[in-house]
Design goal:
By secondary structure, the chain is an alpha/beta fold. It has two domains: about 190 residues, Rossmann fold, CATH 3.40.50; about 230 residues, Nucleotidyltransferase, domain 5, CATH 3.30.420.240. The chain has 16 helices and 17 strands. Helix 2 crosses helix 3.
Length: about 475
Amino acid sequence: MAIRHKLRPYQVEVGKAILDSVFSGKGLTFSVELARQGGKNELSAQLEVLLLTLFMDLGGNAIKCAPTFKPQTIISMMRLKERLNDAGFSGFWLPEHGYIVRLGKARQIFLSADNSANVVGATAHILLEVDESQDVSKEKYAKEFKPMGAATNVTTVLYGTAWDDATLLEEVKQLNSELERKDGIKRHFRYDWQEVAKYNADYLRYVEGEKERLGESHPLFLTQYCLKPLRGGGRFLTSSQRAQLQGDHPRRHQPAEKGVYVAGIDLAGEAEEGEDAVLRAIKPRQDSTVVTIGELDFSAVSELVPLPRVDIVEHYWWTGRAYASLYPQLFDLLKNVWRAKRVVVDATGVGAGVASFLSSALGGSVVMPFQFSQQSKSKLRFELLAALNSGRVKMYTRDGSEEYQEFWHEMERARSNFRANQTMNFYVDPSEGHDDFLMSLALLVEAARYTPRGAKGFLRSGARANQGL
């Protein structure tokens, strides 16, 4: 029975080049950049079915690796089994050892490219594939995977999307581009979201929605859909993004009668008790606790931008205050003054105690503890940029206060850098100040994901939009 999943022209182009290298014994290494959800896994699975079929009497191993065994490698294995069944091989292929699919004498082996995985010893005779290669260590690939095809001159394919300019995929891409200039053989294939959208109207609508939600300059949109690698680190916010952040509403010290309010709280490490302004003057590098209050505006919620706008209306800033003395003030401000519907609080380290107190005092449905880690902080950064790019968060107008000045000091000096596995960090260099207002703002944006009871339409549209992150 024929495979029912028809490949698109750009997938066919890649497949033909790979098969030519395999059957001509060229042993080429290809790099394939394909926009997220553009069909690279389908292409890979159908190539694997075809090669297993053609080599089922001859025998040999094809090897595929991914950054993680669970879920990435397992998903690839499941897709291959489905396509083998589609092709009429149900009952003929056999699983072996939990990571091999055998058809006749030919085997498709699935391995993890995690740095801790022990993969030395396998040999690739037919094809070597590296999935999501932008997340695979260059050292792991060079030392343990590339040698798998050395004795057989195996054809190698690295699939993925862009990230920064130091990934394995970017390195192979640059090498392939140089080789192509010398001999004219195409080794690098790149298909961004606009190419994929030519053949899929639903995909076009989805990505245009992501473009609206995230903004064209958002790192995820640039790398996953436009396939543009990020170049080094630098300032976190551009002048354009800072301009978008500036609002035209006044600072407010008390809530409007029908306003809906949320808060983001960044906690300082505990210090000795002291007067705030005096301590800041004596110890300008002293961490502070910052509470940012935001008012939610649901009038602009739509299918494309499914979250409310948040206007920053108030800041509270304490330096050198012991948590014990802050508890009653925090409780009163959040419960009685602002009637906060959601509070996201830094619960990392000693902050866990404050988060626990607030959760008990205000209720678990209101307080959301936030643990900072490499992954969670990166996600927080992505969400903050999406809010800025779509104009969903605005700062109150100049009021001559210390809080206003410090807020913009941190926004102007905030920096970002890129990490492995498509994560990012953002911070203010200690030599230039602190990032308390910056982190409090990011936690406020997380709190602004609040949806009023009964607003099921917001929840449904929000869930759809969040699938892109």
